[in-house]
Write a structure and sequence with these properties.
By secondary structure, this protein is an alpha+beta fold. It contains seven helices and nine strands. Helix 2 crosses helix 5. InterPro entries: TRIM/RBCC, Znf-RING_euk, Znf_B-box, Znf_RING, Znf_RING/FYVE/PHD, Znf_RING_CS.
Length: 242
């Protein structure tokens, strides 16, 4: 009975630690926040380095020095809620540090350094005494060393589980950074198109009385110039997309 209660207590404690760890993961690098941690106006958190990377991806033409943008001011969007973050003259270094999150990270790391019990580590279902420590590249599943030597994966190619995890996490992080930068550029083009549409509508409204007076001659002239306007519009849109 005592052993069962201890196991349930340890399991609940592990679940709590896992839940806490998920709250301390940066949405860009997908790792635990690295100090200094900055808090955005929308109350989401980022590693300051990741915030700098997003800012550079959203503003690729700003001057950089040593991989860090040297221009002051600017803006980027929060990767969690898409809220626009406007920076002051200090850039990302002007964002407020979240000391509370940094303290929680320190406490979490202290608790995580305690030696884990064997029962808390993932074990192989086929070989109960073997830890899951490798990844089968053919079947794309984690497994244990005994399965590779004697079991179902003896003819498969395998790799250390930690190496596969780090590689996939790095690929996913790079993909997210590219998507964030591309989305910001697309949003900028959409904003320019909307502004152009509003300008065209204003010009159209202001020229309406003159068009009514001119009557049929104005309509005929507009019809003759219509292909030219379409060609100009497509050329202008292509220049924006480039």
């Amino acid at each position: 009975m005592s052993t069962s209660l201890n196991y349930k207590s340890l399991s609940k404690e592990q679940q709590t630690m896992d839940t806490l760890e998920k709250q301390l993961i940066c949405p860009i690098c997908l790792e635990m926040f690295t100090k200094p941690v900055v808090i955005l106006p929308c109350q989401h958190n980022l590693c300051r380095k990741c915030a700098s990377d997003i800012f550079q991806a959203s503003n690729p033409y700003l001057p950089t020095r040593g991989g860090t943008t040297v221009a002051s001011g600017g803006r980027f969007r929060c990767p969690s809620c898409r809220h626009e973050v406007v920076l002051d003259r200090h850039g990302v270094y002007g964002l407020q540090r979240n000391l509370l999150v940094e303290n929680i990270i320190d406490i979490y790391k202290q608790e995580s350094t305690r030696p884990e019990r064997k029962s808390e580590q993932p074990m192989c279902e086929e070989h109960e005494d073997e830890r899951i420590n490798i990844y089968c590249l053919n079947c794309e599943v984690p497994t244990c060393s005994m399965c590779k030597v004697f079991g179902a994966h003896k003819d498969c190619q395998v790799a250390p589980l930690t190496h596969v995890f780090q590689r996939q996490k790095s690929e996913l992080s790079d993909g997210i950074a590219v998507l964030v930068g591309s989305n910001d550029r697309v949003q900028g083009i959409i904003g320019q198109l909307e502004e152009t549409c509003r300008t065209v509508e204003i010009m159209s409204d202001s020229s309406a009385p003159q068009g009514q007076v001119e009557g049929a001659s104005g309509s005929r002239e507009g019809a003759e110039n219509e292909p030219t306007r379409h060609v100009f519009s497509f050329s202008w849109l292509n220049s924006l997309s480039e």
